[in-house]
Amino acid sequence: MPVTGINPDFSTYICNDCGEQVVLNNSTTIFPPCPNCYGNSFRKA
Ligand SMILES: [Zn+2]
Q1: Does residue 41 have a pLDDT over 70?
Q2: Are the beta carbons of 21 and 45 closer than 8 angstroms?
Q3: How far apart are CA 7 and CA 5, in angstroms?
Q4: What is the pLDDT of residues 5-39, one digit of tens each?
Q5: What is the DSSP letter of 15?
Q6: Disulfide check for 4: which of 10, 15, 37, 40 has CB 3.0–4.6 Å away?
Q7: Ligand 1 centroid, distance to 1 Cα (angstroms)
Q8: What is the whole-number distance in angstroms between the Cα of residue 39 and the centre of ligand 1?
Q9: What is the pTM for the complete model shown?
Q10: Residue 1 in this model has a pLDDT that exceeds 70
Q11: What is the DSSP letter of 10?
């Protein structure tokens, strides 16, 4: 399961806590916390 603070794959992730969708592109080097709830647990969309 992807977590924040690591270098993720370029993909779309969904927050496990609130369902917020986070799109990571090739300018993202470190997985950010959820912008909605600051959660750090995601699943791939
Ligand atoms: Zn969230």
Answers
A1: yes
A2: yes
A3: 7
A4: 766 678 899 999 999 998 888 776 788 899 999 99
A5: E
A6: 40
A7: 15
A8: 5
A9: 0.75
A10: no
A11: S
Smallest CA-to-CA distance from 45 within 3, 6, 15 is with: 15
Task: Look at the chain and report how many structural domains it folds into.
Answer: 1
CA dist 43 and 45 (Å) reads 6
Position 27 scores a pLDDT of: 73
29 CA distance to ligand 1 middle (Å): 19
Tokens 């699943």 label which residue?
A: 43
Q: How far is the CA of 20 from the centre of ligand 1 (A)?
A: 5
pLDDT tier for residue 4 given thresholds of 50, 70 and 90: confident
Residue 44 belongs to domain spanning = 1-45
